[in-house]
Amino acid sequence: MAKEIPDLVAEARAGTGKGAARQARREGKVPGIVYGDGKEPQPIQIEFNSLLTKLRAGRFMSTLWNLKVEGQDDVRVICRGVQRDVVKDLPTHIDFMRLHRNTRVNLFIHVQFENHEEAPGLKRGGTLVVVRPEVELVVTASDIPEQITVDLTGKQIGDTIHINDVVLPAGVKPTIDRNFVIANIAAPSGLRSADNEEAAEEEAAAEA
């Protein structure tokens, strides 16, 4: 299932240059430009508070957006730059790049864990420790996975789940080359305490 692409509402902006940009800011908008995909650059403006909320939510520049401008066809874009006020650190201009359906982009995709009841380690009281709830992947703009799935069947206490243990959709690959950890099954606190006490007793006996 393809991942739902969030909407980003903007307005077409009349004119370019510093004067037009200043006028947009006076009206409570952030001026911007949309370029790429072999088409003419399109000046836009986005409502300041809406944009600021999305920026502060994180992952803005690694999110694929469905740009909606009244009177125009929706277009998929990714942010390629945010200019900010040097004093207030607030957005003053924003650049977006149009994406073709076959464009490859880096996006953070949610990790879903399933079959908890089939994991002996969890049945024994172990805890699933999620190291990466999202993984940055290289995906095609026309086919973004909703999530990647980790099967916990057969996982024991002490087991570690790496990215290479996950079956990724066709054409999808991690942005990081190394086999990084996604999650592990940690021992319950009581078992950890018992193990620590046993280790301490063995150490004391050895010293004696």
From TrEMBL:
Gene3D superfamilies: Ribosomal protein L25, beta domain (2.170.120.20), Ribosomal Protein L25, Chain P (2.40.240.10). Keywords: Ribonucleoprotein, Ribosomal protein, RNA-binding, rRNA-binding. Residues 105-188 form the Large ribosomal subunit protein bL25 beta domain. One of its GO terms (cellular component) is cytosolic large ribosomal subunit. GO terms for molecular function: 5S rRNA binding; structural constituent of ribosome. It comes from the Bacteria. The keyword Magnesium does not apply. Coiled coil: none annotated. The keyword NADP does not apply. One of its GO terms (biological process) is translation. Residues 8-96 form the Large ribosomal subunit protein bL25 L25 domain. Belongs to the bacterial ribosomal protein bL25 family. CTC subfamily. Part of the 50S ribosomal subunit; part of the 5S rRNA/L5/L18/L25 subcomplex. Contacts the 5S rRNA. Binds to the 5S rRNA independently of L5 and L18. This is one of the proteins that binds to the 5S RNA in the ribosome where it forms part of the central protuberance. This is Large ribosomal subunit protein bL25. The lineage of its organism: Bacteria, Pseudomonadati, Pseudomonadota, Alphaproteobacteria, Rhodobacterales.
